[in-house]
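Researcher: I'm preparing a figure for a lab meeting and need a structural model of a single chain. I don't have an experimental structure, so a prediction will have to do for now. The sequence is pasted below. Please return the structure as tokens so I can convert it later.
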Amino acid sequence: MRVTPVALLGLAFASPMAHADTTEYTLDPSHTQVQFCWKHFGFSEPCANFTQVTGSIRADNDSPEKSSVEVTIPVKSLDTHVALLDEHLLSKPEFFHPKKYPNITFKSTGIINVDKKDNEFDLVGTLTVNGISRQVVLESELNKRGKHPMWDNAPAVGFEAETTLKRSDFGMDAYVPMVSDKLDVTITVEAIEADAYAAKMAERKKAAGK
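Model: Understood. Here is the structure written out token by token.
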């Protein structure tokens, strides 16, 4: 089972280590990845991922169901590991439209089916691709909540999530059914407490002389 930003929130906030008020986390793009896989003429199941994922998590520690997640993914960060395929998907009208719709976005609308014992939950939200919005449910699981040694022991959370999408729901039905309509999506996330994340990034920028 994999994790979603929303699932992570519910469990992280319910933890006795959480503060009494709302905590905000910033996604660490270096350790956050969205991957999707499809079937190719029945012979193989290649996968691609987006290399830039940014966003935030607002965790309501007293009422986890009021927590929220927002994620932005630049379409141009698509990486299929095949340069010609990247070009095809980013330039042909039957696929992505990076000039008109440069970002994919996800905004949570709720957290349901929270299982505190197994650290699992469902993150519900609105996914927008090519300007088309659809409700999706991410089956999620909390990996860990604690101090991150690479971020000066700042509070951090990590989780996995998964869902299944139909690309035709977002205006990308070319070559169906030879190339599957269904996409299996997996997500892995690390998020750092927002103030600590901002301070560390400012420190790194200063050290780089920028």
